[in-house]
């Protein structure tokens, strides 16, 4: 019969193994809707790979509120592509947000208090789901850091 330390170690190893298996599971969900979304995204990746095209295609734009300047890029994900300068990172951020721009985290980086409104927009598809996103930020820095740098172009 194993001693107390050995039994404690075995219980710890079993718990760690269970946690590792759960973390390695291809479907991690925060509820029924999250599970369905992950399944659909996984199916979309497979279909895109079989069809030779990306699972997500979008046009991203930003423009100053007064119309005096802006930028426009294309972004494809799974696999990543397009004219976005950091397409792999942008796709990773969007994948973590389930393709929902409003769920992109703020990086927490500091910005000036300058007020020069910027309108950002995204149009296209994310795993066959239409994307039509528009949001206004107080300045270009806030637009970049408030969208996990997806609009940093």
TrEMBL record:
Supply the Pfam families for this chain: SSI
Q: State its location(s).
A: Secreted
Where's the Subtilisin inhibitor domain?
72-139
Question: Is Signal found in the keyword set?
Answer: yes
| Signal peptide interval | 1-29
For this protein, the record's InterPro entries field holds: Prot_inh_I16_SSI (IPR000691), Prot_inh_SSI_I16_CS (IPR020054), Subtilisin_inhibitor (IPR023549), Subtilisin_inhibitor-like_sf (IPR036819)
Going by the UniProt record, its keywords in alphabetical order are: Disulfide bond, Protease inhibitor, Secreted, Serine protease inhibitor, Signal
> Which family does this protein fall into?
Belongs to the protease inhibitor I16 (SSI) family.
Q: State how it assembles.
A: Homodimer.
Q: What is this protein called?
A: SSI family serine proteinase inhibitor
Species name: Nocardiopsis suaedae
Lineage of source species = Bacteria, Bacillati, Actinomycetota, Actinomycetes, Streptosporangiales
């Amino acid at each position: 019969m194993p001693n107390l330390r050995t039994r404690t170690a075995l219980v710890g190893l079993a718990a760690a193994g269970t946690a590792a298996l759960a973390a390695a599971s291809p479907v991690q969900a925060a509820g029924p809707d999250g599970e369905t979304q992950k399944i659909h995204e996984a199916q979309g990746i497979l279909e895109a790979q079989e069809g030779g095209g990306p699972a997500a295609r979008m046009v991203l734009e930003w423009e100053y509120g007064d119309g005096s300047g802006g930028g426009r890029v294309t972004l494809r994900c799974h696999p990543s592509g397009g004219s976005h300068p950091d397409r792999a990172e942008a796709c990773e951020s969007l994948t973590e947000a389930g393709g929902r721009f409003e769920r992109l985290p703020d990086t927490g980086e500091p910005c000036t208090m300058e007020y020069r409104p910027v309108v950002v927009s995204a149009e296209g598809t994310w795993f066959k789901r239409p994307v039509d996103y528009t949001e206004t930020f107080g300045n270009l820095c806030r637009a970049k850091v408030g969208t996990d740098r997806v609009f940093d172009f």
